[in-house]
Automatic annotation (TrEMBL):
Protein name: PORR domain-containing protein
Top-level division of the source organism's lineage: Eukaryota
Alphabetized GO MF terms: RNA binding
Region span, Disordered: 413-434
Record-annotated PORR domain positions: 38-371
InterPro entries: PORR_domain, PORR_fam
Coiled coil regions in record: none
């Protein structure tokens, strides 16, 4: 029996003779394999169509801060990593694919220069105007982020990772953080590290987005000033992938119990919670839900979340929690950096509520002429952002022609820093989650 037992162990199967149970194990450590059954095509399309736009906006912001808004093309070589354009792809070819936004010309010495078209310059002025008009809302979100933190302060460097997600200006660190002294201030430690510190607790802002949805007009009522964050029992909006209908059939009761379980508000002191407990994990879900609600696209890059695990009292295996609660969050593994979505904020591949900055990005997208690259979202390649970029950018096409189809690609063996070796992501773990 000993040899048979070893054979069964090595083949990935564990047999318990006493209870006659068989549990199939897995040796996979790739997020792609763990989340294969949980992919949502529409949200993969949403991720894909904004990748090229983010590269274009990065270059536009770079040119905006040049003395005459022009730069030698060879000087852009140092930014290949930021736009994910590896050699042998030429930056000049990349720019020529977007003639409505970029202009290329040579000077008398034959040096190739890049500048923005008048339309691109107008768009950058519009972006600055939109950011300024929504600055107070961004300040509220930054303040609420500080209110959720353990010590009511966060390293300025970490908050800077959320600059684009929160709709903050380019001069966020040098000017913007000093524009709201009634909310927060910059404090420099003896080692030179700068922190953004909360100055005034606002009880009107210690109300989660779920609470606002549940009680219409709570912020306008006089009771808001008396609000003290504590235990909550509000259910999270759920939106499962279509191929996950069997979840409700087998685990509907457990999901219902999870929804009914009380949890601590993200704005309450969580230092007394025991890590790994059901209450700890559900509060972590509430924190991530609140944080994603602050972002303009209701999505974030997952490695940005890792920076706040200690400050926001969240679990070490954060990715594992995100993938388990696939009805609340959706993790896309497009490209080198994974993104997490707030599922109920999307209808198909479109945001339900679009803020002015999202509408501005759609204008940029229409001028880029993104048509969509034919690819299969089953697997991914670390060069997916740039390989075949002739298909990504079509100067003559319109945004209304967005279309993404499928084709076979290689799989990227990507180790996300959030994942542990034992993080199997499948429906079998749902009972343990709830």
């Amino acid at each position: 029996m000993g040899d048979w037992w070893l054979l069964r162990r090595r083949s990935g199967c564990y047999c318990d003779y006493k209870h006659y149970l068989i549990r199939w194990m897995t040796t996979s450590k790739r997020v792609q394999d763990r989340s294969k059954k949980k992919r949502v095509h529409e949200l993969e399309v949403a991720t894909e169509k904004w990748k090229i736009t983010s590269k274009i906006i990065f270059l536009m912001e770079l040119l905006k801060h040049e003395p005459e808004m022009v730069i030698p093309v060879r000087s852009l070589q140092q930014f290949r990593k930021q736009i994910n354009l590896p050699k042998p792809h030429r930056i000049s070819d990349f720019l020529r694919k977007t003639p409505k936004l970029f202009e290329l010309y040579k000077d008398q010495k034959g040096v190739l220069w890049c500048g923005m078209t008048q339309k691109a310059e107008d768009l950058m002025e519009e972006q600055q105007r939109v950011i300024e008009e929504n600055a107070d809302k961004a300040a509220e979100h930054v303040t609420r982020l500080l209110m959720m933190s353990v010590d009511k302060r966060l390293p300025l460097e970490k908050i800077a990772h959320f600059r684009r997600d929160f709709g903050l200006p380019l001069d966020f660190r040098s000017r913007w953080v000093h524009s709201y002294p009634q909310h927060f201030r910059v404090v420099k430690e003896f080692d030179g590290v700068e922190f953004l510190e909360l100055l005034c607790w606002n009880p009107n802002w210690a109300i989660t987005e779920l609470e606002k949805r549940a009680v219409t007009g709570i912020t306008e009522s006089g009771n808001a000033t008396l609000h003290t964050p504590g235990m909550l029992s509000l259910p999270f909006p759920l939106k499962f992938p279509q191929n996950f209908k069997r979840v409700h059939r087998y685990y509907g009761e457990k999901i219902q119990l999870f929804q009914e379980r009380s949890y601590l508000s993200p704005y309450a002191d969580a230092r007394g919670l025991k890590a790994g407990s059901l209450e700890f994990d559900k509060r972590a879900v509430a924190v991530m839900h609140e944080l994603l609600s602050f972002t303009i696209e209701k999505r974030l890059v997952t490695d940005h979340l890792t920076h706040f695990r200690w400050e926001l009292v969240m679990p070490q295996k954060l990715m594992r929690l995100l993938l388990k609660h696939c009805g609340i969050f959706y993790v896309s593994e497009r490209g080198k950096r994974f993104s997490v979505f707030l599922t109920h904020a999307y209808d198909g591949s479109e945001l339900i509520e679009k803020c002015p900055l999202v509408l501005w990005k759609e204008k940029v997208l229409s001028l880029v002429g993104y048509r969509g690259r034919k690819k299969k979202f089953e697997v991914d390649s670390d060069m997916s952002d740039v390989e075949g970029h002739d298909d990504l950018i079509q100067s003559g096409s319109q945004a209304g022609n967005l279309h993404v189809q499928m084709e076979q690609q290689d799989t990227l063996d990507y180790e996300d820093p959030l994942l542990g070796d034992d993080s199997e992501m499948d429906t079998e773990e749902i009972p343990q989650t709830y």
